[in-house]
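Encode chain A's predicted structure.
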Amino acid sequence: MLSAKGAEQTADDKPDPSRIATLIESLKVPDFHDKSKIDAAEKARVDAAAKAQVELAKIGEPAVEPLIAALKDPDKKVQNSAAFILGEIGDRKAVVPLIAAIQDAPDSLFPGAICSLGRLKDPRAVEALVGILSHYQADVKTRPSRIHAAIALGEIGDPRAVETLLLLVKNGDLDEQISAIIALGKIRDQRAVETLSSVLDSTPPPTKKTHAANKIYVLRRVCVWALGELRNAQAISSLMRALREQEFYWVFDTSQPRLVSADSYTRFFTLGIGLGWEGTMAEVTGVPGDGPAWALGKIGEPAVEPLLNALNDKKAFVREACVFGLGYTGSSNAVESLITLTADKDENIRWLAAEALSRIADARATQYLMEALKKPNWEVITAAHLFFIRCGVEGSEPTLIKALNKRGTPMVALNFLNSGNAQLKTAAEAWARSHGYRTSTATINGQTTKWGEARQ
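Encoded structure for chain A:
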């Protein structure tokens, strides 16, 4: 199914600054203790409040001062909604009033004001947000505020928050720890390496599929991600231990198949806890995308030797992870081993080795892949298809399309669909129809690989 990227704005949809006061008044909604008993009139008020938030955000700068005034409205829902909307508008005139709100107002205002300060990314908010985290032993009512504050500090990215975030990692509950670790990964301050490595080493992987076990899994996963963002060789031993744990590897559920055509590359969110943390496309094929192999690859050259040494591990998923990680190192020292592995008896290893070579800017890797295009080697062409899209070799489209039809996967078709090459797009649409996939048009996060971009 093809759907439009978005309709043009009609005259009725255009924001009307003269409605600001009325819209703010519409933010007032009653408390519903039993939402199943909301009558039609009450539901209409809830819907009106939601629409008012959207319209106020669209109005933008003219609504800022009235919304700042609404931070002191007697109605707590109005306060909180006004705070959220100010963050959506993004006007820094709201920073000081929002800081005052989290310092002086009741806890009910905290989520809106704290999240908006994170979105505004203004370092003036750091001291107030750190102050919230300093009360990590406070009662449970302020716990959401600490979680939001940690995330906001990560968005701001100021190293002044690091020591307090490290304390929250050591002393907070699981949700607070997860939030603080995500923030530390975004700030990328090297003081966090030792603590994050220790958490990863001291937290055993979950063995049962329970709610609590899932949180432990998320904790370990964000530790790995943050260590990858820090790119410090001191974390290699911890990450290599984690790489040998099977918890980090799974196959994406394709029970609802869909290929997305978009201006930008699709991303899948892996945490599912509303923290806005992005995973990688590798989950689609079951490859350890943002797991330990990815993190080791981010560290780069110092991780090459440990990854090469682990290629003889008895566990297949460990070997696969190592090959994947070698590609992400971008190291020329991995090229010869990867070329050898393209002839491995294990099909997954062969595929991953070819894909890894496509990530490394080395003349030997380029020569090997171009020779595979000429032979042609369908397996290598399909695995390294992004390399060939980037190169955009004139006249290579028929070979690439044949590779899609012989060895294609949903991910290959997705990249063809978004490549900007009309022949590849048409072929991907045909492949999708023949394999029971839908195609649609959407606006999504990330970047696509475009035809011939390496020549530009």
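Residues 1-11, 250-289 have pLDDT under 50 and may be disordered.
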